[in-house]
Amino acid sequence: MHATPLRISRRPLAIAASLVGMVSLAIGAHAALNKRALEPAKAAPTEQNADAAGTGSRIALVIGNGHYPDAAAPLTQPINDARGLTEALRCDGFDVDVVEDAGRDDMVRAVERLKSRVKPDSVVMLFFGGYGVQVGSESYMLPIDATIWTESDVRRQGISVESVLSAMTAQGARAKLAVIDASRRNPYERRFRAFSHGLAPIEAPDNALILSSATPGQVADDSDDKHSVLVAELLNHVTEQGAGAEGIFNETRVAIAKATDGAQVPSVSSSLQEELRFGIDRTAEAKAGS
């Protein structure tokens, strides 16, 4: 008796193999989709932590004007202040553009350079030391080559603090800081028909913090020290480890008011919506990490 050979159709096998392949592809695609879905969830906290740590760009424009031809004597403190603050800011990770004894063209170019460097994640700081004048409701930083006889001259030749802050905002800066040390008795103010004294109130735009050396409408006398009272006290606090900017500005205001028995009371205006910290040596951190 002969055994009949067992014949297996290849078609069912091919269909089975095809089904197995399709199932495998489906499982693989599902796994890939799950992986992609998980990746953004992991990335988001990382970006938030980086933002909270203040790792976005930090840029600053520092201007110190001391040699005004119309003044009886040069101001020695603004340039020392600009250099001291520049050193402190650079240690804190700021990319600083520092300008000394700037004429109007120099100041305009410096502001344009600042605008070109602003990014949406930038913390931007402005420092001005020198003579300032208020006209109307605005405060103007004066270049050393300003020829001032009327209020119109101030508007034409000065640089308004508000205009620089507005430019920072227009460029998309994340946060704005300003320190304006210009509430000095200046050689121009008595030339005006409407006598002006000190600076006007500087309102903080969105997410900004502003420190000026005296109460609006008041002036502060310079001492014989290397730094102005404002900058000397600010430098004492700005190097404190992880100190908050708003706390530093307020501590500076209180310390100066106490030290001068109320004769000089700096002004602080804030609309900050986040905590900005100083006193972190990011230069050292970068070297350690490289």
What is the fold's blueprint, element by element?
Layout: H1 10-52, E1 58-64, H2 77-91, E2 95-100, H3 104-117, E3 123-129, E4 132-135, E5 138-141, H4 151-157, E6 159-160, H5 161-170, E7 175-181, E8 208-212, H6 229-238, H7 245-259, E9 267-270, H8 282-289
Helix pairs in contact: 2-6, 6-7
Comma- or semicolon-separated keywords:
alpha/beta; six-stranded mixed β-sheet; 8 helices; globular; disordered C terminus; 290 residues; three-stranded antiparallel β-sheet
How would you characterize this protein structure?
The structure is a single chain. This protein has 290 residues and is of the alpha/beta class. It is built from eight helices and nine strands. The chain has a six-stranded mixed β-sheet with strand order 2-1-3-7-8-9, with helices on both faces. It has a three-stranded antiparallel β-sheet with strand order 4-5-6. Helix 2 packs parallel to helix 6. The longest helix has 43 residues, at 10-52. The radius of gyration is 30 Å and the shape is globular. The model is unreliable at 1-10, 12-17, 19-54 and 282-290 (pLDDT under 50).
Structural class: alpha/beta
Q: What is the number of beta strands?
A: 9
Low-confidence stretches: 1-10, 12-17, 19-54, 282-290
The tally of helices reads 8
Query: Main sheet: which strands, in order across?
Result: 2-1-3-7-8-9
Proportion in β-strands: 15-25%
- End-to-end distance: 85 Å
Percent helix: 40-55%
Order of helices and strands: HEHEHEEEHEHEEHHEH
The average pLDDT is 82
Shape descriptor:
globular
In angstroms, what is the radius of gyration? 30 Å
Major pleated sheet: 6 strands, mixed
